[in-house]
C-alpha cells in the first residue's frame, strides 16, 4: 500500500482535533438536526466553514445520509479551491485521506481513469491545505460505514467540465455526490438573507446561470451539478438555510450557509 496519505490541514481550527471531542460534536449536531422526512438523496450541497458556524446546517443534510449507510460505498466530493489558483479540476495522488476519526481510502481506480481521460489533473498542492473538502470527511465518517472517496478540488472550470466529470463517476445507489459550497460572504444579515434565498431558489430550479460568483464560493461545482441534474431528472430541495448570524457570529458581516438535497424522484 502506498504511504502517500493526505494529513488533515484544519483539524483544531475548523473542527476539533481530538477524536472524542470531534465525535461528540458531530453526534450532537446530528441529533439536533431536524430535516424533513424525504427520499434519501443522490447528491447534497453542504457548507464548509468552521463547525460552530456551518456545522448545524451541514448536519441537516448529513442526517439524511445516515439512511444510506448500508448502500453508499463511494463518495464523490467536490469543493472550490481557496488557496491554489489553477484551471480545471484537481485530483490527489494520495492513497488515503486521514482525519482524527481515521483513514479514508481513495478510489484510485476511478481517479486514475479520470486523469487518463483528461477530465481532471493530478495536483497535490491544491489538496494539501484545502478545507472545503476536509471539513466534510468527519461527517461522512460518522454517517456512512465503509466507503471510498473521490476528492476533487475545483479551480477555474466551466459548469460543463464539472458536469462531464460527475457524469463519468455518477454510478448508482452506491455512489453519493457531495458538493461543498458556502453562500454569500460578509454582507449584513438581511442582505445575506435576501441573496441566499435567491440562490436557494436558483438551486431548486436547477438554474446555474442565476448564481453569480458573489452568491456562492462553490458556484462552479454547484453549477456543474445543477447542469447534470437537469439531464438526470433530479429534483432539488432546500432543507436548511441560515447564516453565521444565526449560529455563532455577529450580524453585521455574515456568511450564508445552505443545505440542499437532490433526489432522483420527486421530493
Describe this structure in words.
- The protein has 267 residues and is α/β, with parallel strands linked by helices.
- 37% of the residues lie in helices and 23% in strands.
- It contains 10 helices and 12 strands.
- It has helices at 19-32, 51-65, 108-116, 124-128, 131-134, 137-143, 159-168, 189-204, 219-232, 244-247, and strands at 5-6, 43-46, 74-80, 89-91, 96-99, 102-105, 121-122, 148-154, 175-180, 185-187, 235-243, 254-263.
- A hairpin with a 2-residue loop joins strand 5 and strand 6 (102-105).
- The chain is globular and about 45 Å long.
- The mean pLDDT is 95.
How would you concisely characterize the structure shown here?
With 267 residues, the chain is of the alpha/beta class. The chain has ten helices and twelve strands.
